[in-house]
Amino acid sequence: MNARKWSASAATLTLTIGLELGLGPSAFAAPTGCSYQLNTAERWASSYCTSGTGEHRIHVLQRHFLPEVGLIPIEGPWAPAGATSYTGISPHTTISVWIDTRG
Question: What pLDDT, on the 0 to 100 scale, is given for residue 29?
């Protein structure tokens, strides 16, 4: 009877540990080695990160030529490291460009 009780406890413990390891949160590392390109003549911007397991996206802030309109925020889609985040931009003045990362 003791052996049977021990086997049931061991099986329950093994199953619990397996579920915790299998369903636990994945480890992510924010992308690194990131750079961006801005082409105002062809009106596009992109970002690329060489390593990491998280995601990145390009951001561009532009100023509309009509002061009352104000700033124009533009962002690309989230992309994994090793892929490009790309977006079109307007013909207005570019104020700043940066890369968001998460992971």
Answer: 83
How far is 49 from 56, CA to CA, in rounded Å? 7
Place of tokens 């086997």: 7
Taking the model in full, what pTM does it have? Answer: 0.70
Please state, in angstroms and as integers, the Cα–Cα distance from residue 52 to each residue in 71, 78, 101, 102, following that order.
32, 14, 10, 10
Q: What mean pLDDT comes out for the span 81-101?
A: 97
Place of tokens 């009352």: 68
Tokens of 70: 């104000």
CA angle 24, 15, 12 (to 5 degrees): 135
Helix or strand holding residue 18 (H, E)? helix 2-23
